[in-house]
Every structure is written in C-alpha cells, then in structure tokens.
Amino acid sequence: MRKCVRCGEEMVEGFTFTGGSGNVIRKKGLTGKAVYPKAAVCPKCGEVSIYADEEQLEKLMK
Ligand SMILES: [Zn+2]
Predict the structure, then answer these.
(1) Which residues of 9-44 are buried (b: 16+ CB within 10 A; e: fewer)?
(2) What's the 14 CA to ligand 1 centre distance in angstroms?
(3) pTM (2 decimals)?
(4) Section 30-36 average pLDDT
(5) Cα of 41 from ligand 1 centre, angstroms
C-alpha cells in the first residue's frame, strides 16, 4: 500500500491517465521501452502520486 507523503493516509491506487500522449515514461530516448504510469490519490488531502507498477518497473529497470 502506498502512503500519502503529505498526511500519511493510505492512498487509493490504480488510477490510469487518459487522453493526450504526454504521460509516457521511456527508458532511453524515443525508442526506449514505453511505460504508462499509474496514479494513486489520497482520499484525505487529495495528493496525487504517479507511480510505475511492478510490471512497469521491471520494464524500466532492465
Ligand atoms: Zn494525504
């Protein structure tokens, strides 16, 4: 579980970004492996955290 960096509350995970094309992480340049990050939202203060899930992380760190 992710904890909010602001208030310590447990964040709700698994949100995805839709629309636009600016939310891709690539390892190296434009030909690198593309990963679409997810977002978690704090139900208490509204902090939004962007993260790579396990599968995405593996792609990025290889
Ligand atoms: Zn919070």
Answers:
(1) eebeeeeeeeeeeeeeeeeeeeeeeebebbbbbbee
(2) 16
(3) 0.77
(4) 79
(5) 8
